[in-house]
Design a protein that fits this description.
The complex is a heterodimer of chains A (about 280) and B (about 200).
Chain A (H helix, E strand, L loop, with lengths): L3 H5 L3 H13 L5 H15 L6 H15 L3 H14 L4 H13 L3 H14 L4 H13 L3 H13 L4 H11 L4 H14 L2 H17 L4 H16 L5 H26 L6 H18 L1
Helix pairs in contact in A: 2-3, 3-4, 4-5, 4-6, 5-6, 6-7, 6-8, 7-8, 8-9, 10-11, 11-12, 11-13, 12-13, 13-14, 14-15
Chain B lengths: L3 E3 L1 H13 L5 E7 L7 E3 L1 E6 L6 H18 L2 E8 L10 H13 L4 E5 L13 E7 L2 E4 L5 E2 L3 H13 L9 H6 L8 H10 L8
Parallel strand pairs in B: 1-3, 1-9, 5-6
Antiparallel strand pairs in B: 2-4, 2-5, 6-7, 7-8
Helix pairs in contact in B: 1-4
The chains are: A mainly alpha (about 280), B alpha/beta (about 200).
Organism (chain B): Hucho hucho (huchen)
Subunit structure (chain B): Component of the ER membrane protein complex (EMC). EMC8 and EMC9 are mutually exclusive subunits of the EMC complex.
Protein name (chain B): ER membrane protein complex subunit 9
C-alpha cells in the first residue's frame, strides 16, 4: 500500500504540522491521525525531536479509537520508558484498559492516580466515563455531582474555563448556548453578549453568528422589553442577518452542492425578519 | 397504531451518521415525501448533531432550516432519531422526548426512533432500531410488526459497502455544516451514491 507521503505528496514536516493542527483544534479524526502518525513514527522518529512524545500520545489515543491495540501498545511503551511514574502516562494506560473494556483494571489505574493526586480531575472524569460505559448511570451521576460540587453547575464550569482561557472562542460560545438553553430574558441577554464575544474572538464562528441572531431576535420579540432595548436588538439581529447572508453567498459560489442549504438559510432569514417587525 | 415504512436511503444515512461519530450521541430528523394519512413513509432523513444535543440554539436553528427546506421540496418532518453514545442504553433521553414532542405537534403520527448501538455490527440480522409512537401524551414502544423495511438485506449491504469504501465520511450533519458552511447538510452527493448502489429492483423510495 502506498504511504501517506506518496499518496498525498507531502513531506514529513507537513505531516508533523498537520498533526499539530489537529491537536490544537482538538480534532478526533482518528483514522487520519493513525495513518499520518504511524508513518511519521516509523519513518521519521529521529527527526521529530521532542515533538515525538506528544505525537506518541496523540497517536495512541487515535489508535485506541481505531482498535489498533498494537500501535497503541507501542506508543504507550515508548512513553512509559521516557516518563516513568508519570500521572499523564498512567492515565493513558487507563484509557487503553477502558478501550479493551477491562473496566475494573482501568478504574484501579485511575484510583492509583487519585491516591497520589486527589485533585486530578482527568482521572476523576475517566472514572465517571467508565460508570457510564457500564450503564451504571445512577452511580455515574452520584460521582459527577460530587465532582461538580467543587465547580457548581455547567455554566459555572464554563465560567472557570473562560477565565483561564479568555481567548478560546469555543468556551465562550458554549457558555452562550447554555445560557440560551436556560432561557428567560436575563439569560437570553447574557447569551447574546457571549455570542458577540465569541464572534469578536473568532469572526468565522458560524454557531456564534447564528446564536447572536437568534438571541437578539428573541429579545426583540419579547413583550417584556422596552422600546430602546427592542430597537437595539433589532439592530443586532439585522447585523447578524447581513453577516450570515454574506457568509452563505460566499460559500454558495462555485459549488453546486450546497445550493439547497444556502436557499434554506435565505428563506429562513427572510421569514424571521417578518415576525420581528 | 399505524404502520411505518423506513426507506433504504433514510436507514443508510442514519446508520452512517452513528458510525461516523462512534463516541458521540447523534441525532437527526426523519422526513417523508408522501402525503399525510395512512402509513408513515420515512423516505429521507437529515442528520443534525453529534455534540451538545441538549443545548437549544443549534437545535432550534436546524429545525427551522429543515422546515424551510421541506417546504421547498414538498417533504414533511415526520420523526426524530437518536443514537446514544453509551451503547448499552438506548432509551430516549429527555432531549429526545422534547424534540419528538415538538414534531408531534405538527405531525400527529410522528415517530421517535432510537438506534440500538449495541446491535450495529454489519452482520446483525435485524435492523438495530427501536421505534416509539405517541399514545395519549406518552411515547410508547411500537409493535415491531408495524415497522417495515423493504429489502433489508440490500439495505444492510449498501450500508456495509459505504462503510468499507470510506464513503461514510461523505455524510454531512448540521454540526459539520456549521463548521464549514460549504458542506451540504442535505447530502445530495451521498444520496446519489446510495441511489447508485440500490439495485433497480429496489426502486428509490
Amino acid at each position: 500500500m502506498a504511504s501517506v507521503s506518496e499518496m498525498y505528496d507531502v513531506t514529513w514536516e507537513e505531516m508533523r504540522d498537520k498533526l499539530r493542527k489537529w491537536r490544537e483544534d482538538n480534532h478526533r479524526n482518528s483514522e487520519q491521525i493513525v495513518d499520518v502518525g504511524e508513518e511519521l513514527i516509523n519513518e521519521h522518529a529521529s527527526k521529530l525531536g521532542d515533538d515525538i512524545w506528544i505525537i506518541y500520545e496523540q497517536v495512541m489515543i487515535a489508535a485506541l479509537d481505531c482498535s489498533r491495540d498494537d500501535l497503541a501498545w507501542t506508543c504507550l511503551q515508548e512513553l512509559k520508558k521516557q516518563f516513568p511514574g508519570s500521572q499523564r502516562v498512567k492515565r493513558l494506560a487507563g484509557m487503553r484498559l477502558e478501550a479493551l473494556e477491562k473496566y475494573e483494571d482501568a478504574s484501579k489505574q485511575y484510583d492509583s492516580i487519585l491516591q497520589d493526586d486527589p485533585t486530578n480531575t482527568a482521572a476523576r472524569k475517566r472514572k465517571i466515563s467508565i460508570l457510564k460505559a457500564q450503564g451504571k448511570s445512577a452511580e455515574a451521576i452520584r460521582e459527577l455531582n460530587e465532582y461538580l460540587e467543587h465547580y457548581g453547575k455547567a455554566a459555572f464550569c464554563l465560567e472557570e474555563l473562560m477565565m483561564t482561557n479568555p481567548h478560546n472562542h469555543l468556551y465562550c460560545e458554549q457558555y452562550a448556548e447554555v445560557k440560551y438553553t436556560q432561557g428567560g430574558l436575563e439569560n437570553l441577554e447574557l447569551s447574546r453578549k457571549y455570542f458577540a464575544q465569541a464572534l469578536k474572538l473568532n469572526n468565522g464562528n458560524m454557531r456564534a453568528l447564528f446564536g447572536l441572531y437568534m438571541s437578539a431576535s428573541h429579545i426583540a420579540a419579547s413583550p417584556k422589553v422596552n422600546a430602546t432595548v427592542k430597537k437595539a436588538n433589532v439592530k443586532y439581529a439585522a447585523w447578524a442577518t447581513n453577516q450570515i447572508n454574506r457568509a452563505y453567498q460566499l460559500a454558495g459560489r462555485g459549488t453546486k452542492e450546497n445550493k439547497c442549504s444556502v436557499k434554506a438559510v435565505e428563506e429562513m432569514l427572510e421569514s424571521m425578519q417578518i415576525t420581528m417587525s | 397504531m399505524g404502520e411505518v415504512e423506513l426507506s433504504c436511503l433514510a436507514y443508510v444515512k442514519m446508520y452512517l451518521h452513528g458510525c461516523l461519530f462512534p463516541r458521540c450521541s447523534v441525532n437527526g430528523l426523519l422526513l417523508s415525501s408522501s402525503p399525510a394519512g395512512g402509513t408513515v413513509c420515512v423516505t429521507d432523513c437529515v442528520p443534525l448533531l453529534h455534540s451538545h444535543l441538549p443545548l437549544a440554539p443549534i437545535t432550534q436553528l436546524a429545525l427551522t432550516q429543515v422546515d424551510v427546506w421541506c417546504a421547498q421540496t414538498q417533504q414533511r418532518i415526520v420523526g426524530y432519531y437518536q443514537a446514544n453514545a453509551c451503547v448499552s442504553d438506548n432509551s430516549p433521553t429527555p432531549c429526545a422526548l422534547k424534540i419528538a414532542d415538538k414534531i408531534a405537534e405538527q405531525c400527529n403520527n410522528a415517530v421517535l426512533l432510537m438506534i440500538d448501538g449495541g446491535k450495529m455490527s454489519p452482520d446483525y440480522r435485524v435492523p438495530p432500531i427501536v421505534m416509539y409512537e405517541r399514545k395519549d401524551t406518552r411515547w410508547t414502544l411500537k409493535d415491531k410488526h408495524t415497522i417495515m423495511l423493504r429489502q433489508w438485506e440490500e439495505t444492510r449491504e449498501i450500508a456495509s459497502q459505504l462503510l468499507d469504501s470510506g464513503d461514510h465520511s461523505l455524510l454531512v450533519d448540521f454540526d459539520s455544516h456549521l463548521d464549514d458552511i460549504t458542506r451540504d447538510w442535505t447530502n445530495q452527493k451521498l444520496n446519489a451514491k446510495i441511489a447508485e448502489l440500490s439495485s433497480p429492483a429496489n426502486g428509490n423510495v
